[in-house]
Amino acid sequence: MKKYFINLLAWFLIATILVAPAFIKFCRYETAVENGYEIEAVVVDYKTRIESVEYTDDSEVYILYVDYEVDGKEYKNVKAGEFGKIHLRGETITIVVNPKNPGKIIQDSDMFTGVLCIVGMFIAVYGIVAESKTMKKNKATKEND
């Protein structure tokens, strides 16, 4: 029984390591939005990067740089993150800044973060089911002896 709980704890820890960073990132983003740190910024520059994935067409990723103002302080040429859609110089976009450090932009959760959450949850469920089956099998073996 003790081994069962240790194994279950190990599965839980692995799942937590995958899910926790994504959950924290999501909470920070939502808190910043709720506290009014979702603001307008002007695109001042962008760089293009080609992402090549096997068996798919190459896709362009646009790294945007923006100017914005928070609490009367101006921030210039700050990297806003990577976008799948081009935004031209002078275009206004909505960003979310870190309330404690407005010079840093918080990006919304991306696909990779979502995948980590799903994989983490799958590992947790798999671990519980696998350990339950092992425990039942061991219990049945002891009863037959």
Secondary-structure topology with pairs:
Blueprint: H1 2-34, E1 38-51, E2 59-70, E3 73-83, E4 92-97, E5 105-106, H2 111-144
- Counting DSSP H or I runs of 4 or more residues, the number of helices is 2
The oligomeric status of these chains comes to single chain
Binned strand content: 25-35%
Question: How are strands sequenced across the largest beta sheet?
Answer: 3-2-1-4-5
Largest sheet: 5 strands, antiparallel
Query: Which spans of ≥5 residues are poorly predicted at pLDDT below 50?
Result: none
Span between N and C termini? Answer: 17 Å
General form: elongated
The strand count comes to 5
Structure write-up:
The protein starts with a helix and ends with a helix. The longest helix is centred in the C-terminal third of the chain and has 34 residues, at 111-144. Strands 3-2-1-4-5 form a five-stranded antiparallel β-sheet. Strand 1 (38-51) and strand 2 form a beta hairpin. It folds into two domains: 1-36 and 112-135; 38-97, no CATH class. The chain has 145 residues and is α+β, with helices and mostly antiparallel strands. The chain is 46% helix and 31% strand.
